[in-house]
Amino acid sequence: MDEFGEAAFVEAERSLSEGGIPIGSVLVWKGQIIGSGHNRRVQKGSAILHAEMDALENAGRRSASVYRESVLYTTLSPCPMCAGAILLYQIPKVVIGEAQNFKGEATFLRKRGIMVDILEEHRCLEMMTRFIDSFPELWKEDISV
Amino acid sequence: MDEFGEAAFVEAERSLSEGGIPIGSVLVWKGQIIGSGHNRRVQKGSAILHAEMDALENAGRRSASVYRESVLYTTLSPCPMCAGAILLYQIPKVVIGEAQNFKGEATFLRKRGIMVDILEEHRCLEMMTRFIDSFPELWKEDISV
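Above: the input entities. Below: the structure tokens describing the complete assembly.
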């Protein structure tokens, strides 16, 4: 992974160390991280702070032109809510750590014109697999199944 | 509008009185409001707290079974992010105040199996039209155009 993929992974590790769901994300504009985040379901009792949403929130209010020159990195394939946020802000490219534990909306994003790279990075995959095995109910809650 | 549509409208009015974007939403489960919210872009400097997201957040962590028996009311047709949240949580029905100022993702939601009622309620329409006329840049920021 490049430095931004690593930064997203560090966010996922941070969430795990907080007792949360280990998914991390960063929003990158012109080669700089402008928002970092991780899943906060446990930490904040949040139903909407998936990692990607947290990164977008932490990036603050930005003009449309910023999002359209940005890349969103996430350790796990985005759910419908996070994919929708990517479409709202027309972020042209998404880099995904892994899409094996959760297929997510990568195909839908591609159909809507977003460039999607799936790395299948073993550290992302292993961290999430271990988490799902250990906390299956929490994981199910996060994807509402 | 029924009492829940009215409650969403009151949320929109509340946002306006706070200097914010006048869009409101409530999440209803078994005939009771379990989450109310309004757009908080201005109030909290938020990029993700659209009205529907705020209502979902204020409903707290809920099991999948609750969302699947719920109805989401919103004064304006949902954007891709909010539509995605509806799909994530498989909320089976959405009641929309108006879809003239913003077409949103009503058609997409229907394609994905969500029941969508569009009321074209004149008070929702007029409030939003007046707001967009008065604050076009803020409105553009909210839908990232």
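Note for the figure: The longest strand of chain A covers residues 32-38.
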